[in-house]
Amino acid sequence: MNITSTKEYTVLPRPAEKLPEYAHAKARQTLAEKLQEAFGLSEAAAAAISNAVVDPAAVRKSINDTADPTVESIAVPGGTLLGIRTAVWARRIMPDARNPRTLPSRRHPFAVEPGKGAEDSKFRPVPEPRTPSGVGPEIAELAVQIESREHLHWASQQAAGYVLANNNWKDSIASQGVMESVYLVAMTYNHDDGIEPVTTLTTVDGSSRVTATHEILGIRSSDVPYDDQDTKFRGHIRKLNEEYERGADKQTLDTLRCERIPALILVGFVPYHSGTTGFPTAVKSIVALRHVDPPTPWGEGPENESLADEVLDELHRRSLITSIQHAYYAGSCTRAEARAAHLSDDPAIRAAEIVGLLTNPDQRFRTAIRVAVTSQSTRKRIGTKLLNDLATALVLRAVAGDPSKADQVRRYLRFAFGKSVHSQVWQSTSRDTDTLVNAALSEVHQSIANGSVDERGPASLELAVRAAYPLVVSGRLNADRGSANNDQPDRRTPGEVLDAMRQNVQGVYQLGQALRDFAEGRHIRAVADDGTIKVQGDAGDQMVNDIYLRGEFPPAGKARARRPGDTPTDRYHNAVSAMANAITALTEAFDNLRSVEGDDGRALVETKGVDQRACAAWREELTQIDDELVLWSVTHRRANGANADARRLVEEAKSLDDEPIMDVTDEWELEGDEPLSQTAD
After folding, report:
1. Residue 378 carries which DSSP code?
2. 387 and 311 in contact (C-beta within 8 Å)?
3. Where does the pLDDT of residue 645 fall: very low under 50, low under 70, confident under 90, or very high at 90 and above?
4. Nearest Cα to Cα of residue 141 among 99, 81, 91
5. What is the pLDDT, as a whole number, of residue 661?
6. Is the distance from CB of 311 to CB of 320 less than 8 angstroms?
7. Contact call for residues 562 and 580 (beta carbons, < 8 A)
C-alpha cells in the first residue's frame, strides 16, 4: 500500500486473520446453562448470548464459581451493572432499532397518523424496552413490543439511514475493525401479529459501530433475530478462511476484520436499595453517562498534547531520537540540562528543531508518526494541519505565562508554519543568528540574480521557522481573528507573512532582528532596508506589530504600507506602493469591463468591442510601461543579486574619493549576475 504521500499519510489497515470455527452446539449449550445458573437469565436470553459469543468455553471459564462469578462491575446511579467482556459474532447481534440519535427526527402518532404520511411515519416509533413479563427488575433482560417483523425492519432502516448520514464509521471500521467494546443486552422482540417472540443481543451503546459493520458485511440488521441457520454460518466462515489462504482481495479482508466485535455483555444488576432502580433504568444511566452527561471533553489542546507525547515515544522506541532528545522535545529537561547535552537552550532554535522533526521527509519518521497517531485515533487525517498542531503543542512547552494567553498563542502559532515548511527540503541547524542571517541573505541575493520570483533556500526557511517563535509568542504577529469586530484587511496566515518576509533582504534582516531582540528580552524593533534600526524621530526606535509587518511585507504585487518620512527613499517606496495600487485598480477595471453583459447574457465587450483608437493608445502606454518594467527588473537583479555587497563597497569608495581605488568590474561579472554594461535588451 502506498504510504508515501507528502500531503497526507495513509492509515495502514489492521492485519486480517483467519476466523475460528463457529462453536459447536454442545459448547454453546453449556455456556447458556452456566449463564442461567449464575445470573438468573431466561433460557432465551442465555441462548442469545451463548450463540453470539465467539469462544463460549473461554467465557464459561471466566465466569468461574456460580456463587461468585468473575464479572466486570460498572457503577451507575442506583446500583452496579455486571458485564462480561468478550468477542461476539457481528452476525449474531443487532443495533438498537430505536437509536436515541434519531429521537429528534421521529414522527409520533399524535402528529402524523402511522401510514398516512411519508415513509418516516409508516409505523409508530418502536417503544422503549421494558423488563420482560415475569422477570425480576434486577435480571439483565429487556423486551420490546413491535407490530410485526416488517415494523422492526422499517425502524432499523430509519435508524441506519440516520446513523450512516451523521455518524458514519464505515471507512474506519473497514480498515481497523471495531476496536472499542459495544454494550449489549439480551432483547426479546414480541410481535402483535402472532409471530413467536425472538431474542437476540442488541446494542444499548455502539449502534453506530454495529450499523456500519453490518453495512460493510452486506446484511440487514433486522434479519439477525430471525436467523438461526448454524450450517449456513459455518459454511460462510469456511469460505472466508479459504479465500484468505488463497490470497484475499480487499473486500474479503474488510469482511474478516468485521466478522468479530469486542463487546461488554450486560448480564446482571445489583441495586443499592431493593425496589428503587430496575435494570432498564440502569441501562439508561450508563448510556447517559457516555452520551448525555459525559466528562468534559479534552478539547484540541490536551488532545494534541497527548498525541504529541505518543509521537515522541514512538520515535524513541524506533531509535530515531535519543533519550535526551526525547526529554528535550517533550520539554521535560531544564535548559541547563539541554546545554550539558550540547542541545540549544534557545526556545526559538528548539522550536525549529521540533518543526523539522515532525516535517522530516524520511519515511521512517513518517511511519512512526502515523503509527503513533492512529494508535489513538483512526479518524484523524495525518496532514500538514495535524503536524502543525503537534509541533505547536511541543513548542509551547517552552512558554511560561498566563494560561489564557498561552491558548491564544497556540491558536496563532499553529498557522505559522506554511506550505514551504512541508514541501521544501530543509533542516534545523545550530547556527547562531548572525550566521543564519548571512546564509539567508546569500540565498536571497543569489535567487534574485537567478531571476527566481518567489523561491529562496533552506537557510531563509529555517530562519523564518525559527523567527516564528518570538514574533508569535510576543504577540507581534497574529493569525486571523475571525469575522466579528475584525479590522484586519489582510487575512494571510502568519506562515504566509513569514514566507513573504524571507523573500527579500529587508525581511531577512527583520527576521534576524526579531531573534536578537527576543533573546535579549526586549521589544522587537523594526529595521530598514539595510538592516539598521528604524527610528521614529524623538519617539526612539520603531517597534514592530502585526499591522506593521503585514503592511511592510505584503504579498507579491500588492501595495506596501505608506511611509511617513520625506527622504528620497521614503518617496521611492511610496511611489512603488502607488504603482502597485494602480495596477490593482487597472486589473479591477479590466475585469469590470469584461463582466458587463448585454440583454442576451453575453459580455458587451465581446460584441461591441472597444474603440480601436483607445485600444491602440492603451497598448502603446502598456508597452512602454512593460519595457520599463523589464529594465527595472534587471536593475533590481543587478542591485540586489549576487555580489550586490561588492557593488556597494565600490560605490562607497567612489563617494570618498573622486578617483576609484580599484576596478572591480571583472569581479562583478560572475556567474549568475549581470555586468554593469548589460542593457535591458
Report:
1. S
2. no
3. low
4. 81
5. 35
6. no
7. no
Instruction: Tell me the Cα Rg of the chain.
Output: 36
- pLDDT tens for residues 468-499? 999 999 999 998 765 555 555 688 999 999 99
Give 6's strand partners: none
pLDDT (0 to 100) of residue 4: 35
For 334-415, list the strands marked E by DSSP: 382-383
Please write the tens of the pLDDT for every residue from 600-634: 888 888 888 988 888 989 998 998 888 888 888 88
CA separation for the pair 98, 207 (Å, rounded): 10
Phi, then psi, of 351 in degrees rounded to 5: -60, -45
Extended strands (E) in 518-599: none
Secondary structure (DSSP) of 159-219: HHHHHHHHS--HHHHHHH---SPEEEEEEEEEETTSPPPEEEEEEEE-HHHHHHHHHHHT-
Residue 216: count other Cβ atoms within 10 Å of its Cβ. 21
Q: What is the DSSP letter of 521?
A: T
Dist. CA 592–CA 603, nearest whole Å:
10
Q: How far apart are CA 494 and CA 504, in angstroms?
A: 17
Under DSSP, is residue 563 helix (H, G, I), strand (E, B) or coil? coil
Alpha-carbon span 315 to 390, nearest angstrom: 14
Amino acid residing at 354: I
Determine the Cα–Cα distance for residues 389 and 407; give it in Å rounded to an integer: 12
Instruction: Look at strands 72-76 and 79-89 and give their pairing.
Output: antiparallel
CA 122 to chain centre: 41
Rounded to whole angstroms, the Cα distance separating 639 from 630 reads: 14
Q: How far apart are CA 160 and CA 665, in angstroms?
A: 80
Contact 125, 117 (CB under 8 A): no
24 with 30: CB under 8 angstroms?
no
pLDDT attached to residue 199: 97
Contact 209, 378 (CB under 8 A): no
Cell triple for 257: 476484520
Please give the angle made by the CA atoms of 315, 321 and 326, to the nearest 5 degrees.
85
Pairing of strands 260-271, 198-205: unpaired
Say what the pTM is.
0.62
Sign of CA dihedral 13, 17, 23, 24: positive
The one-letter code for the residue type at 26 is: K
Q: At what angle do helices 433-449 and 612-640 cross, to 10 degrees?
A: 140
Residue closest to 441 by CA, chosen among 304, 647, 640: 640
Per the CB < 8 A criterion, the answer to whether 53 and 85 are in contact is no
Q: Which of 10, 348, 52, 356 is nearest to 187 (CA)?
A: 52
Beta bridge partners of 130: 143
Buried b / exposed e over 477-493, threshold 16 CB at 10 Å, is bbbeeeeeeeeeeeebb
Q: Is 590 exposed, middle or buried (0-12, 13-18, 19+ CB in 10 A)?
A: exposed
CB atoms within 10 A of CB 520: 8
The total number of residues written for the chain in this structure: 681
